Every structure is written in C-alpha cells, then in structure tokens.
Amino acid sequence: MNIKRFRMGILIFALTAVTFLTVSNAVVQAVEFPYSTVSDVLDKISGNWYDDNGNLVISIKSNYINDCQVISGHDFAGGNPGGGYFRIQENQGIRDMFILWDTVDNPPYIEIDKSGIQLHR
Questions:
Q1: Phi and psi dihedrals of 37, rounded to 5?
Q2: Whether residue 81 has pLDDT greater than 50
Q3: How far apart (Å, rounded) are the C-alpha atoms in residues 121 and 98?
Q4: 3-state DSSP assignment of residue 34
Q5: Which of 12, 26, 45, 58 is the most buried (most CB within 10 A)?
Q6: Cis before 107? omega within 30
Q7: CB neighbour list of residue 31: distance below 8 Å, 6 or more residues apart
C-alpha cells in the first residue's frame, strides 16, 4: 500500500511541476490593431492637452504624439471612453504610451501612462 501512495505522490508532483512550467513559460502577446483603427482613435483625441495650471503637456496631431510618430497601437478597450497603448518612435527608441480618453465627457479629457492626472483641451 505504501508503494502505491509513493507512486501516486510522485505522479501528482510531476503533473504539478509540468503544469507550473507550462503556465510560467506562457507568452502574453499584445492585441495589435489595424493602423486605420489607431488613426481613428488619434483623430478622436487629437489636439493640444493641458494640465490644470494651463501648461501644455501633450500635443496629438495626425499620426504624431509630441512630434513622435505613432507606429502602432495595441490592447485598446472601450470606445469612448476608452484606453489603449500607442507605440511611438522617440529619439531614444520605441516605447509604449498608455492613454485613457473620454472625449464625450464635459470637458473632454485624456490621462497619460496611468498618472491619474486628467489633461483637458
């Protein structure tokens, strides 16, 4: 009887180890959107955005954010309000910028990189 328990214990351990290794090696991939969708969102949030003190913080025009070209977008959620990542080409390299937006609210706002600070036009 002890041999059966020992073998069952080994089997359970092996299955647990295989499951853990499979889950820990899983690759999470971003959901890329067609550039036409990215462009539509950029049109929706285009303009100059200011903080509460009236300082220009970010400018979104055409397919550029602060004069950095938007290469792609991924993991968009919602419509309006919504949010998603914009991949931009900066002088230092490529980076993802997360933007939340609500252009229906009065006044419309965006929030950059989950800062908690709302910017207004």
A1: -65, -45
A2: yes
A3: 18
A4: coil
A5: 45
A6: yes
A7: 74, 75, 76
